[in-house]
From TrEMBL, chains A, B:
It holds the Pfam family CoA_trans. Belongs to the 3-oxoacid CoA-transferase family. Key enzyme for ketone body catabolism. Transfers the CoA moiety from succinate to acetoacetate. Formation of the enzyme-CoA intermediate proceeds via an unstable anhydride species formed between the carboxylate groups of the enzyme and substrate. This is Succinyl-CoA:3-ketoacid-coenzyme A transferase. Keywords: Mitochondrion, Transferase, Transit peptide. Pathway: Ketone metabolism; succinyl-CoA degradation; acetoacetyl-CoA from succinyl-CoA: step 1/1. GO terms for molecular function: succinyl-CoA:3-oxo-acid CoA-transferase activity. It comes from the Eukaryota. The active site is at E339 (5-glutamyl coenzyme a thioester intermediate). InterPro entries: 3-oxoacid_CoA-transf_A, 3-oxoacid_CoA-transf_B, 3-oxoacid_CoA-transferase, CoA_trans_fam_I, CoA_transf_AS, CoA_transf_BS, NagB/RpiA_transferase-like. The gene is LOC111603051. The lineage of its organism: Eukaryota, Metazoa, Ecdysozoa, Arthropoda, Hexapoda. It is found in: Mitochondrion. It catalyses: a 3-oxo acid + succinyl-CoA = a 3-oxoacyl-CoA + succinate. Its EC number is 2.8.3.5.
């Protein structure tokens, strides 16, 4: 029975000198089955104009050997699909510096100044896509789904069209994004997004077996996992090739069917984009003097912390939201999600604990708590978009009385991308809290009847917490003042707020979690 | 930094006497965090009329303790979403026997005679859904995707509507399926399918930690994995609860965020639906005499085997397709996919190797080859629909000159369901080979100008192999006779074929793989 299959047994020995006969592929390179000798062999048939998926999040889990090989090869006019644009001298930045890319499809490109320069100078097209939509477009491409509906980006530039993709040399927009179809399901509006499928997917995994089965390490799984499935030719560079059978069939992250080529990279130059360290506390150390700005941020954070509940899952944006996690009460369990693929985020590492394969969505070195889980970006945003995260907290440039949020773009100024923000606020069933200073630096209100900046989400906010006030936002009701800070009157709040609001019959002084 | 999170450390000890304080939930049952004491506690708040997802494939990986608890509880009017209907006295069959279900949504219900009786007697609604579409509808429900497009089922009853869902007592159809929207992408037509989200998901996993992180065993992962994500309340029954931190964050199949309740089941009564055993060969044993029918099947299988290529991934239907794997040449590696979640299917087990958690899509006990991988049903059909399986081989009742296939339904006769067949043939890029006896038992042709039976797929066939002939099917060209068996003339083939065909200039005798 199934006799022919027994041939695989020959690969199943524990001796890693594989018995496959070496042969020459169509591209001419020497290889053994799926195993290639080097990065340059594995990318030998990439042609000018190819569309390539690049795994990684920031510079974590990037296929650095293949990027270097593409630089050496000098192919041009590449469309690169990558969540980020790397940094100037690392990751996708290496190819951008060499002007080998004509287009980047990603969610956040702010860390690469050369990319932004080329974009604004009309040398590079940039198609900004919400991070979760990007992950799902890739997942769909691999899964034979040509299009799907998502709540993300509805009633924003992403859906309405008009986002600049390409400028000319004089800074005039020559290509802008098209409007996308909208359809209503169960009384809610959704955007139709089409899938992404590429010529190549270049991914980085921790280990592979000769059949191409892959295992990733920690948060280096990120976009690598869905990208494996969405290209004609997927090439995985790995740190270790183990014999067939050495990986348990229950533990494989990506089955070999998706992977056409593998090679072992050496001397990995893994960097941490934002190294953050927990310094061990010195005996007798006291809290540093806090600045007025710091005190204001702490006040907001201590109010936010009252929203945590035992057993809750939360995603916290950079800044005040993360700060609020300092005030989670002892004994209360709140599990933090990081959209690059972590559930159970822990504190920053000590120097010895730093692992370049373990970063948060802010690209900072982190640790995880016992019981944590790692997953790919497609799973992470399925979790977010599906409303499984109870609470999302993030900052804002402007908010409106109807719950609109603007926090990703100032037209005419630098556009870095929306990252995962549009997905985080779009999930029905997830409570969205906005934390921000009540007024802009020039004193103008940030809470408005309607936002003037391009939206991140329409009607998505549940609660606004500033240093001066707490507003509830309700559909069909608008703003209700629940609390205001000591030293202010309702009239003071009205004077510095650009939208009408009701005052709750139970309005009270702004609460603070006890420390 | 992130101080509150440190509370989780208390759960991270290796001592499984958890420190969480016991408390009473809204439903009144005693529990510790997510851990419930029993199945009856865990399902205490299920109400009449609930929509429930039941994990499992056939009776492999079913939540048997919760099914028993629901039987004891006696809730009625349940809509059960389950790939299969179990068998008469096991799995979902237990609840069907008690008439606790008013509707079943599944892909194949043929193993349960009582289910079919209730369906035809107007006592039970049955909504048949292609297996891959069912898995993707559930995956989408969990991922916040209200609808998606799939090639599966286009131009069949599934898309055109009219499939009987409910009969009255007199056998008249009172509810039939609605037509579904169609849209074209890249020149191909796709069906829009809406997602499934339920009140409860009842799943069976191998082990859990107190945070609800889950690990499945082998092919018992199947529908359990996607179902965890697509319900308001997911309850997992497990064979083992391990301490927090005992499962590596890289090895978790379903993160705890999706799982609200867990309990440990005991005395699992796992059954194998179709026990198949490889008997060790006796010395001097010779091949049994073969019947004429057997010889015919062997002839087809030996022709089919010529289509295998080294390194290929294939999905083989029950019968002649599976038989063809006996003839895969020594030294050629063909990796077999089984749509219930296996890549790298091996031969039937010896008596000692039988594992009820390891079955193929035909519900037979199997083994796997070294380098195999297990995955959930959503991943399995993403693989299939995405065209990653190179070859799919299955049987037919009728085929047409334009490549239409009919192999799942005879109107007025018993309808068992399409299982995964519609998904398997719909994938663009996958070669579809049909193996069948050239003529029906009454001698009538099965190769026709157009099919009279409801279609499994439209224009999906690439090659037809019967005991008499091999036809190529090409879009816009139709049938071309490539080979015919010894003892026949082209005129003979024409006489027993119900469609016109061209004869290849290179037409030759029907080839057979050498044994």
């Amino acid at each position: 029975m199934l006799r022919g299959l027994a041939a695989y047994n020959r690969l199943g020995n524990k001796n890693p000198t594989f018995k496959l006969v070496a042969c020459y592929s169509t591209a001419g390179q020497r290889r053994q089955g799926k195993i290639y000798e080097s990065a340059s062999d594995a990318v030998a048939d990439v042609k000018d104009g190819s569309k390539i998926l690049f795994g990684g999040f920031g510079i974590c889990g990037i296929p650095e050997k293949m990027i270097e090989a593409l630089k050496q090869k000098g192919v041009k006019n590449i469309t690169g699909v990558s969540n980020n644009g790397g940094v100037d001298d690392c990751g996708l930045g290496v190819l951008i510096k060499q002007k080998q890319l004509s287009k980047v499809i990603g969610s956040y490109v702010g860390e690469n100044t050369e990319l932004v320069r080329q974009y604004l100078a009309g040398e590079l097209a940039v198609e900004l896509t919400p991070q979760g939509t990007l992950a799902e477009k890739i997942r769909a491409g691999g899964a034979g789904i040509p299009a799907f509906f998502t709540p993300t980006g509805y009633a924003t530039l992403v859906q309405q069209g008009g986002a600049p993709i390409k400028y000319d040399k004089n800074g005039k927009v020559t290509v802008s994004s098209a409007a996308k179809p909208v359809q209503s399901f169960n009384g809610r509006n959704y955007v139709m997004e089409e899938s992404i499928f590429a010529d190549f997917a270049f991914v980085k995994a921790q280990k592979a077996d000769p059949l191409g089965n892959l295992i990733f390490n920690k948060s280096a799984r990120n976009f690598n996992a869905p990208m494996c499935r969405a290209a004609k030719i997927t090439v995985a560079e790995v740190e270790e090739i183990v014999p067939v059978g050495a990986i348990s069939p229950d533990e494989i992250h990506v089955p070999g069917i998706y992977v056409k080529r593998i090679f072992k990279g050496t001397n990995y130059n893994k960097r941490v984009e934002r190294l953050r360290i927990t310094e061990p506390k010195q005996n007798g150390e006291t809290a540093a003097e806090t600045s007025p700005g710091q005190a204001l941020r702490e006040r907001i954070a201590r109010r936010v912390a009252l929203e945590f509940r035992d057993g809750m899952y939360a995603n916290l944006g950079i800044g005040i939201p993360v700060l609020s996690s300092n005030y989670i009460p002892q004994g209360m369990n709140v599990m933090l999600q990081s959209e690059n693929g972590i559930l159970g985020l822990g504190p920053f590492p000590t120097k010895d604990q730093v692992d370049p394969d373990l970063i948060n969505a802010g690209k900072e070195s982190v640790t995880v708590m016992p019981g944590a889980a790692y997953f790919g970006s497609d799973e992470s945003f399925a979790m977010i978009r599906g409303g499984h995260v109870d609470l999302t907290i993030l900052g804002a440039m402007e908010v409106s009385a109807t719950g609109d949020l603007a926090n990703w773009m100032i037209p005419g100024k630098l556009v870095k991308g929306m990252g995962g923000a549009m997905d985080l606020v779009a999930a029905p069933g997830t409570k969205v809290i906005i934390t921000m200073e009540h007024n802009a630096r020039d004193g103008s209100p940030k809470i408005l009847e309607s936002c003037s900046l391009p939206l991140t989400g329409k009607g998505v906010i549940d609660l606004i917490i500033s240093e001066k006030a707490v507003f509830q936002v309700e559909k069909g009701v608008g703003l209700t003042l629940l609390e205001f800070a000591e030293g202010y009157t309702v009239d003071d709040i009205a004077a510095c707020t650009g939208a009408k609001f009701s005052v709750s019959p139970n309005v009270k002084p702004m609460a603070q979690i006890s420390v």
